[in-house]
Design a protein that fits this description.
Elements (H helix, E strand, L loop, with lengths): L3 H15 L9 E3 L8 E3 L1 H9 L3 H12 L5 E7 L3 E6 L1 H12 L15 E5 L11 H19 L3 E5 L7 H13 L21 H17 L1 H16 L2 H24 L14 H13 L3 E4 L2 E4 L7 E5 L5 E5 L4 E4 L7 H15 L4 E5 L5 H13 L8 E4 L4 E2 L16 H18 L8 H21 L7 E2 L2 H4 L7 H20 L12 H23 L3 H20 L8 H24 L9
Parallel strand pairs: 5-6, 5-12, 12-13, 14-15
Antiparallel strand pairs: 1-2, 2-4, 3-4, 7-8, 8-11, 9-10
Helix pairs in contact: 1-3, 2-3, 4-17, 4-19, 6-7, 6-8, 7-8, 8-9, 10-11, 11-12, 13-14, 16-19, 17-18, 17-19, 18-19
The chain binds arginine.
């Protein structure tokens, strides 16, 4: 890391080491008292205990060694043995200049050893409407994809399209029953119609009806099961019809994801693992991992002694393995969700050989992934630590349950975006923003504000917490919201435009005023925020940084006039600082998947 905090940390570590203290105890943190210091180290307290020394004395000796550091304006022992550090304006200015000159990286380092990483996110299903779990996965996964790429990894975002399950058989039977797809129902090799016999509306109408019907209508369900098995076994007419379902769904989904600013490098489906399935099952068999269980075939994944109490239908309680075995082949011979996930690992290894696969999927699927990962490691398809499930909480309605529309249905992504854009338009108008802009530009801005509101509201929460959907709050131009951040970014853009019009240009950065110090320190903190967000797979740390930066800029702008600065040098310096703040803010928002308009 090249940030000031880390390089100061190294110096402090060396000073502790010279006093015979383990340098790892010498952590430097942001000061609890920004009015007194920029950073502090509490290392002497912990170290003194270990050395049976007096903490204040030890701190004093360490401080003495650091007095000569030219970056430090102040090194001071406080309280029982804290060491406070204040940087010189020159050190801050130099760092801010480095950040300003760092172009695309804005002061953040890349990883030393890039990896090949697949991020499996969104996971929409053919014909089934997306729910809020898919929305959160899309937003979080997109941000992680951008963050990992920014850190230097080679990243593939994969939508892992749900195109191989029972819903496919249901659709085949439902479409067949309506009579619209007679050309696909024959058993031969075709040829089959090249035109889709269904539209997206047909799929959206037929699937829910078929799913409901299959609950009570046994004959219908059995036909759908049979159709699923025949499809998977390769019946040509069904495959041709299925390919139309997939294409129709995918076109619509790509449009919706596009509106959300979410794009994938791979649109592989569960079905893409089909070619490796038979080989994998034979391999599991050879390795002795596939065992018979009540007519089905499973892989045991719990280690001896890993059990939990399970209630049986008759009310008795037994100790059952935990996690439960992975169901590989069901009693009626079909591949299951876990089977396709396992085969997808095999397939990905063949095609890409990733060092890491991240699965951004609802926390409620935690057990499923535990089963799949354990099976993959047992079978030697993956190494421990190379598969990670990144679960997340739900987006809830005011009732605390997963968000539903007023009609009680799942919210469609398209409707959500429309609703948010309507609200954004109204808010912009109320605030008198964009009134003088051409209508198309105003529309584009309303769309960006809407997306920023939705994404920032999601990403500013830590991944695992659930949050309540509250469009009014998300869309406010005040507080910790996407619209506030866009507004701040646009304000800096307009300031810089005015400066350019007046012929004022950036100059050497000078850091003198407290608000300038604070802004420089915030610019410095980006490196750490990025690496922490990456290590913890935690975009909210980026959201936090964006907010802090916007606030630091806002205070700076209020305290330090830019266009009417006291002299040309400080005006040039402040323009350069503003530009650096804007670049880093836009970059951070970009890592969250949020686009900034030019004006509003
Ligand atoms: N299609 C699944 C669902 O809707 C999500 C897929 C997640 N990814 C995976 N590799 N299982 O629940």
């Amino acid at each position: 890391m090249t940030d000031l905090k880390s390089s100061l940390g190294e110096a402090v570590g060396a000073a502790f080491a010279a006093e015979g203290v383990d340098a790892s105890l010498a952590r430097v943190t942001t000061s609890d008292r920004p009015d007194l210091a920029d950073f502090q180290s509490n290392g002497a307290l912990a170290a003194a205990k270990a050395l049976k020394a007096n903490p204040r004395e030890l701190a004093g000796r360490v401080a003495e060694r650091l007095q000569a550091d030219p970056r430090l304006a102040l090194v001071e022992v406080a309280g029982p043995g804290f060491i406070n550090f204040k940087l010189t304006g020159a050190a801050l200015a130099e760092r801010a200049a480095t950040v300003a000159a760092d172009g695309e990286r804005a002061g953040a380092d890349a990883v030393a050893t890039p990896r090949r990483v697949i991020i499996d996110y969104a996971g929409p299903n053919v014909a089934k409407p997306m729910h809020v779990g898919h929305l959160r996965s899309s937003i979080i996964g997109e941000s992680l994809k951008r963050l990992f790429r920014f850190r230097g990894d080679t990243v593939w975002g994969d939508a892992h399209f749900g195109d191989w399950g029972f819903q496919m058989g249901l659709l085949i039977v439902a479409v067949g029953d309506e009579g619209g797809a007679a050309g696909f129902m024959t058993e031969g090799d075709g040829p089959f119609p090249g035109e889709a016999p269904v539209t997206l509306e047909d799929l959206e109408r037929l699937y829910p009806a078929a799913a409901t019907r299959a609950k009570d209508d046994i004959e219908f369900r059995d036909r759908a099961r049979k159709a699923t098995a025949e499809l998977q076994a390769g019946r040509p007419g069904y495959r041709a019809l299925w390919a139309h379902f997939v294409a129709v769904s995918r076109t619509a989904l790509e449009r919706e994801f596009g509106a959300l600013g979410v794009t994938f490098d791979l649109w592989n489906g569960e079905s893409d693992a089909d070619p490796v399935m038979a080989g994998m099952i034979a391999d599991l068999e050879t390795k002795g991992l596939l065992v018979e269980d009540d007519g089905a075939r499973v892989v045991h994944v719990a280690r001896p002694g890993e059990t939990r109490k399970r209630k049986l239908p008759d009310g008795s309680v037994m100790e059952a393995p935990s996690p439960p075995p992975l169901l590989v082949i069901s009693r009626d011979g079909s591949a299951m969700y876990g089977t396709t996930d396992l085969a997808t690992i095999v397939d990905r290894r063949k095609a890409i050989d990733p060092e890491l696969i991240l699965y951004v999927v609802d926390e409620r699927q935690a057990e499923h992934f535990e089963q799949v990962f354990r099976a993959a490691i047992l079978a030697g398809y993956a190494t421990p630590g190379s598969l990670e499930h990144l679960g997340f909480g739900t987006m809830n309605g005011p009732d605390g349950k997963p968000f539903k529309t007023r009609a009680g249905g799942v919210l469609k992504l398209h409707d959500l975006i429309t609703m948010a854009t309507d609200k954004a338009r109204a808010r912009l108008q109320e605030s008198g923003l964009g009134a003088d802009l051409p209508p198309e530009e105003f529309e584009a801005i309303a769309h960006k504000v809407a997306i920023a509101a939705l994404k920032f509201a999601d990403l500013s929460n830590s991944r695992t917490t659930s949050y309540v959907f509250d469009l009014d709050r998300f869309m406010s131009f005040e507080g910790k919201t996407g619209p506030y951040l866009l507004y701040q970014a646009v304000r800096i853009k307009s300031l810089l435009r005015k400066a350019a019009e007046q012929g004022a240009t950036p100059a050497t950065i000078v850091v003198a005023e407290p608000a300038e110090r604070d802004l420089a320190l915030t610019l410095d903190a980006f490196d750490q925020a990025v690496s922490d967000a990456y290590d913890k797979r935690a975009p909210h740390l980026l959201a936090e940084h964006a907010y802090r930066l916007a606030q630091a800029f806002s205070k700076f702008y209020a305290a330090c006039p830019v266009l009417v600065a006291p002299d040309a040098d400080s005006r040039g310096s402040r323009i350069a600082l503003s530009q650096a703040a804007l670049d880093q803010l836009e970059l951070t928002l970009g890592l969250l998947g949020i686009d900034t308009p030019e004006r509003m």
